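quick one before i forget lol
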Amino acid sequence: MGCDIHVMAEIKIDSNDEWLFFKELRVNRDYELFSKMAPIVGRGTQCAISMASLPPNASKLSMYMLHRYAEHTYGHLNKNEIIQLIEWIKENYPMNSFRELIGFIEDPFEYDFFDKRIIFGFDS
């Protein structure tokens, strides 16, 4: 049981301010992860983000994909916030859970870009 979590990975390939859609990451339905990512729900879990919002410079494709699937509670995490979230995931879930999210940050050969972030939304 859980909440659908739609996650779009974005990258920067150099130091300019342009973020590019990279891929949609598969993330398991999970209320605990939802409460970790979404400050509105909380449910006693410290949230990874301080405010649910979408970045103003999100790529057009990411925004299209996100609004196509997600219905509520939007947000984003920068690379350091994703690392903190991954540490929490590793402490609370089996190693094979959330492989794509973990690989997006930790695999230096497949995903070695100037900067990375995720934007996300949820639906019931």
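fyi The beta strands are 4-12, 20-25, 72-78, 115-123.
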